[in-house]
Amino acid sequence: MDTSEYLGLFLDECGESLQALNASLLALEREPAEPEPLTVIFRVAHSLKGMSATMGFTAMAGLTHRMEEVLASMRDDHAPVTPVVSDALFACLDTLQEMADRVASGDTEEVDASAVLARLDAIASGAHMAVAEVVATVAPAPPAAPAAAADDLSHYERMVVAEAHDRGLRVLRLDVMFDEGCRLVAARAFMILQEIEALGDLIRTDPSTEDIESGLAGADGIAFWLVTAAEGDEARTAVLGVSEVASCGVSFVTLADGAPVAAPAADDTSAGVSAATPVPAALGEPRAARAAQTVRVGTDRLDALMNLMDEMVMQRTRLEQLAHRHALGDLRGAVEEMSRVTNDLQTLIMQMRMMPVEAVFMRFPRMVRDLANTLGKRLELVISGEDTELDRTIIDGLGDPLVHMLRNAVDHGLESPADREAAGKDPVGHVHLSARHAGNSVVIEVRDDGRGMDPDALRASAVRKGVMDAASAAALSDEQAHELVFLPGFSTAVQTTDVSGRGVGMDAVRTAISDLNGEVTISSALGRGSVFTIRIPLTLAIIRALLVTSGASAGTDQVYAVPLETIEETVIVDRSEARPVSGRPCLVLRDTIVPLVWLGDSLGLAPSADESSRLDVVVVTVGSTRMGLVVDGLVGKQDVVIKHLPDYLGEVRGVTGATILGDGSVALIADVAAIAASAGLTA
């Protein structure tokens, strides 16, 4: 069988499995006495081994199998989870990730796993030694299991069956026969596992999974033992849906005087119960029987669907303008109904593109753990809001900026345990990574309780590096001094390390976030810690914007789109109300001074000769900075589809993209952050 068509699915599931294994190993390291992380690790590792073997990746399957054996000794002998054990298991996951990466890139060169296999062998050889002394601190030992008779379940399996019955669940035995001449029994068995594990928990196979995967057994039939809330008919239907399955007999397993009895279900006949190597699994919470309710869709198809939606939005806007211009009542009614439908469709498509930020957040616990060990620091990473959803394109671009921010928080932000104790702090530092919705934006924060940023040190570093003279540095407020860290090549580190301090990172963060139409700001208190805040739009595809005009007096009358999320208010004031403050025209709004910036001037248009008595001002915010954009006119609010400018245009000052209006004309989308920076209002 050609498995190439399943490669994409395998890589997706492999990535999810490795992420789950990393998360569960971290949980096991934190609370070694808890049985649940080890149970999850066992289940996921077993599934990954089966997938790898089915796809023909024997090295990956072999390494996962060896890892599974080490986990089995930890579970059965209650061996302690020491740093040596966890480090070896993490190294195993790193090697598996490297194998998966090579598969994805088409690299056929084998990954040398001998070193990590040797570490696993060393752990396995010592797993049974001197564990009695630590059993009390790890977990109570289970009752000794009696020798399994030829027609009996193991003691562990009988406990699982009894617990299942106590919970009101069924234990089914599924006796599966394959078509005569079926050559890929292991592949079919794995496909059956995928189907029935959606219905409950697998506790046993006969013959063993190792014999099935090796091709030594299974052709004469396989028995699967399943704890489930599903009916027998539903389990049978799931199994018979796999190709080359000839029959599936279903029996209910009960206990009579402590011994298992397989009773026929419906008209099925029950085969005798024989001994087999149990599959490492545990009875978790019952999973409701369900049909497949999801389907994997390629991102290229989602992008194509979004592009078609973009075109529909533009044509809808054009029809709205035609109906309004020609006062066609019937057309206007039809357009209003179409607008309702397209709005619903647009919302649905946007939801399809949304992903929880967990997809990127879950990379970081392992990274932070390794970084803390390297630096000799103790810390706890607290993640919240990981179910907050963002457009997939934005999530793809968030990874690198967040890596830089977290590395800086751990390296520069947190003190060593000794320094924290000397300062009267908990020797264990805390780094918080959170996400939350805020209107049409998502706010992501990286917060630490470390040493904070010293504004005087930042000013001194700026002078030392020639960024500004001493007088200019002294004139900076503490908030402005904090902003210096975003300058290219700026660093206060006395000694560079492999972690940070080479003068790169935070400027790249601001650039990457700006490319996503977002902004990043800093709040810091000396001795108490720092907070880096990213505010980013929900999507880069369609935004709500205010259309304005500028350049009318110069004969251009160009329409521009100002993102609505940056707008605080619009005001019309008398020109005489604009008065200079420190040489810059400003406006006083409710006792607050708002600097004015003429949009046309910031975009390089010809100077306006308009001397009318009124000013149309769009008050916008960039971080903590407010400014008033002076425009020639206000057109109205509209959904606009963002189109990126072609590369051959180079960088267009003050513009982040373009959109096509309903009449076919092009409107440029103003980059409010860039305009504020060019006006000298932000760093």
CATH architectural category of the largest domain: 2-Layer Sandwich
| CATH homologous superfamily annotation of the largest domain | Histidine kinase-like ATPase, C-terminal domain
Give me the side-by-side strand order of the main sheet: 15-19-20-18-17-16
Strand content: 15-25%
Task: Evaluate the radius of gyration.
Answer: 32 Å
Low-confidence stretches: 127-152, 266-283, 285-292
Q: With helices defined by DSSP (H or I, 4 residues minimum), what is the helix count?
A: 22
Can you tell me the number of structural domains?
Answer: 5
Using the alpha-carbon principal axes, give the shape: globular
Q: What is the level 1 CATH name of the largest domain? A: Alpha Beta
Distance between the termini: 60 Å
Total E-strand runs: 23
Helix content: 40-55%
Largest sheet: 6 strands, mixed
What is CATH's topology name of the largest domain? Heat Shock Protein 90
Average pLDDT number = 78
Give the helix/strand class. alpha+beta
Walkthrough of the structure:
With 683 residues, this protein is an alpha+beta fold. The protein folds into five domains: 4-138, HPT domain (Four Helix Bundle (Hemerythrin (Met), subunit A)), CATH 1.20.120.160; 155-264, Alpha-Beta Plaits; 299-356; 358-537, Heat Shock Protein 90, CATH 3.30.565.10; 542-678, CheA-289, Domain 4 (OB fold (Dihydrolipoamide Acetyltransferase, E2P)). The protein is built from 22 helices and 23 strands. The strands form five sheets. Strands 15-19-20-18-17-16 form a six-stranded mixed beta sheet. Strands 2-3-1-4-5 form a five-stranded antiparallel beta sheet, with helices on both faces. The protein has a five-stranded mixed beta sheet with strand order 7-9-10-12-11, with helices on one face. The longest helix has 28 residues, at 299-326. The two termini are 60 Å apart.
